[in-house]
Amino acid sequence: MSAPRWRDGWWGGARRVDSPNVGPRPPQVEPSLLVLHSISLPPGQYGGDAIERLFTNRLDCDAHPYFDTLRGLQVSAHFLLRRDGELLQFVSTRERAWHAGRSSWRGRDNCNDWSIGIELEGLEGECFETYQYSVLSTLIRTLARHHPIGDVVGHEHVAPGRKADPGVGFDWARLHASLAGCRAQVAPEILGQA
User: Fold this and answer.
1) Which of 30, 86, 95, 119 is catalytic?
2) Any bridge partners for residue 79, and if so which?
3) What residues does the N-acetylmuramoyl-L-alanine amidase domain cover (predicted)?
4) Phi/psi of residue 118, nearest 5 degrees
5) What integer is the mean pLDDT of 150-155?
6) Residue 66 burial by Cβ neighbours in a 10 Å radius (0-12, 13-18, 19+)
7) What pLDDT, on the 0 to 100 scale, is given for residue 111?
8) Residues whose CB is less than 8 angstroms from the CB of residue 188 and which lie 6 or more positions away in sequence, other chains included
9) Cβ-based neighbours of 78, under 8 Å, separated by 6 or more
10) Which of 14, 25, 70, 183 is most buried when burial is the number of CB atoms within 10 A of its CB?
11) Are 108 and 150 in contact (CB under 8 A)?
């Protein structure tokens, strides 16, 4: 008998790496928003374990000059999607990850309380890999079966002026097409800008 694919907010399709940067969601709050991010550490360099170390508070901030700017930072996302399609999960979707910071969507503040954060390995302004779109579509469909997800947005949309990821290199129309028939959809405001 195979292990369940979904248990207590953890998806069996992802490699589990527990982050300490997590908290409870407010009572009676289900995640209904997906926030997409982009990250590479150091910026523009892919592979390695620096992102995983950042989300688990194990990053050696002396290992690279850029890492010094991250000293003391405590952040997490629910998922990290690497450029080769590998998927990692750091936080149960039942809990609050620390990914959006000061944020608001359609007048509702504190997006961390009611969203799921997905980091894509990449750099804002650069293109993303075909594998990432394929895995992302599968992940979003899975999340929508377990949570009342409606809108899919970028960090740049919930924290405009403060954040710019995933950026112009992300193909929102491509993602939208891959989600045909799914309850979770790219927010119409974003498609109008793409």
Assistant:
1) 119
2) 89, 118
3) 19-167
4) -125, 115
5) 97
6) middle
7) 98
8) none
9) 89, 90, 91, 92, 93, 97, 99, 116, 117, 118
10) 14
11) no
119 in catalytic set: yes
State the pairing for strand pair 115-121/33-39. Answer: parallel
Is pTM beyond 0.85? Reply is yes
Q: What is the 3-state secondary structure (H, E, C) of 64-89?
A: CHHHHHHCCCCCCCCEEECCCCCEEE
Q: What contacts 64, CB < 8 A, 6 or more positions away?
A: 41, 42, 50
The predicted structure's pLDDT at residue 2? 56
Q: What structural domains does the chain harbor? A: 16-193 (3.40.80.10)
Dig out the tokens for 59 from the structure: 């990053």
Q: What is the mean pLDDT of residues 9-26?
A: 97
For residues 156 and 154, give the distance between their C-alpha atoms in angstroms, rounded to a whole number.
Answer: 5
